[in-house]
Amino acid sequence: MPDQLHIYNSLTRKKELFEPLNPPHVGLYVCGPTVYSDVHLGNVRSFLSFDIVYRYLCHLGYKVRYVRNITDVGHLVDDADEGEDKIAKKARLEALEPMEIVQKYTNGFHKIMRLMNIIDPSIEPQATGHIIDQIEMVKRIIDNGFAYEVNGSVYFDVEKYSQQYHYGELSGRVIEDMQESGRDLDSQDEKRNKIDFAIWKNADASHIMRWPSPWGDGFPGWHLECSVMSTKYLGKTFDIHGGGMDLKFPHHECEIAQSVAADGTAPVKYWMHGGMLNFEGKKMSKSLGNSILPEEMINGDSPLLDKPYSPMTIRFLMLQTHYASEIDFSNKALQDAEKALRRLTNALKTVEKLPFVEGKIDEEKETTIKALCHECSEHMNDDFNTAKTIAALFGLATQINTFKDAGGKVTGISNDTFELLKSTYATFILEVLGLKEESTGDQSVLNDVMSILIDIRNTARAQKDWATSDTIRNRLSEANIIINDNKDGQTTFEIG
RNA sequence: GGUCGGUUGGCCGAGUGGCUAGGCAGUGGUCUGCAAAACCAUCUACGGCGGUUCAAAUCCGCCACCGACCUCCA
Questions:
Q1: Which domains occur in chain A, in start order?
Q2: Which of A187, A155, A176 has its CA nearest to residue A167?
Q3: How far is the CA of A421 from the C1' of B19 (A)?
Q4: What is the ipTM of this complex?
Q5: pTM of this structure
Q6: Nucleotides of B under 7 A from a protein CB
Q7: A83: nearest nucleotide, CA–C1' criterion
């Protein structure tokens, strides 16, 4: 197992040792949301995957500049020529200013990110704030001979590019095949070749989002913003670029082509692609209309769901699967995850409370615990394998619970190992995996009230007044509070 | 049609040549006034057929099924 970070690079299709271009600095770019509607669970998964990448890189001590854009212009709705900007279309539908749409859904996106405990990027650039830079990049591509202008629109010349460079190296596509098998789109007369793509689109007065350019009024093309903003903030070549599998082609392929055509260098050293999230076996996507919003899941407000699930339950379930694999969400999976997460976090509370007692060292136990602690890092080093890391954490949870069961103290291991156990367990759960403790309402008041109820119940129990003690427990259970009489004589509660 | 990926025990889900993944559920036990939690034990699979190998879930071939991408999508 690796003791240094290895990343599966989509570009080379191999797991590679991670060597930053300029250590200890790391440049990380992730394709952000297009803010024309609510982010759904599938989007969340992708951002979570790269949240883990960011967190772990930071954990390893790298100084990471993490750029995740907001796409607020530039995605065409239909085919290339008759296409309308997604934001503009939505603005018409909702009778709002385009920037009102952008603000509304950007706010919603941020809210979900916070709920899911996804850390903010270092820079969150917006495409509309970089129109000038995008125009500059279009100019460079034209100057280098890889784009041509027709009627105020500028198209990337894929064939010309592929004479000199390799278009399709990321997605494994061959341009001859694409020319044969690609579907025919309407009104493509302007393009020299149907595999060419727009980098600047002409827009007449009826378009509500347009900017002046050397080619007349218009708006930037589909894929340009990411090339521009990654270059601007991370340089012409940077370390890691992430996004969902569905962006590999054409979006990321075009990004590579644009950067190479403009600046002559491959933009990215390690390409990472996250797997899709399915519901009932189908990719969850806006266009298929089978998406569940995170808020619906948290409120249980969807006909597809049996009950509400907490943000950390959702987070945990996602992390039980490797980022590159598909996940199929279901009620059963969510309920299992809820219980499993509770086991993990209960052990965290336990280990923080258990006293250490010096004693004869049990070599086997000592070795087991140390090995499990090391495994947490080793598994994360193996292409961010959160599933295996979680397995190791469950191993530690069992060790912790065994201490609790066997006398409610930690003994038989060295103090160093105990400290390692405590810090590893807490660090990986809270910082690396970002599984924060969830609390509902005012904890301090609740704690006070609960300690009163527990006192009354314990008095009843001491008098063998089971009717009273069980009534308290049952009524609390109805209120979703579970009472546990632990082996050590302590009574605790948890919100279930 | 083209390209790529997947098919693992009751369910979810790791895993690329030999060593128990893990979780949830189930079963038996310990503990408990009873529960719950926890612990111990148990159940232990790799789509089908063929091949390579001392050894295959893991490599190769064929077949079946599922999915993604090829058009905006995380």
A1: 6-274 (3.40.50.620), 279-432 (1.10.730.10), 443-495 (no CATH)
A2: A176
A3: 25
A4: 0.93
A5: 0.93
A6: 1-5, 11-15, 21-25, 31-40, 66-74
A7: B72
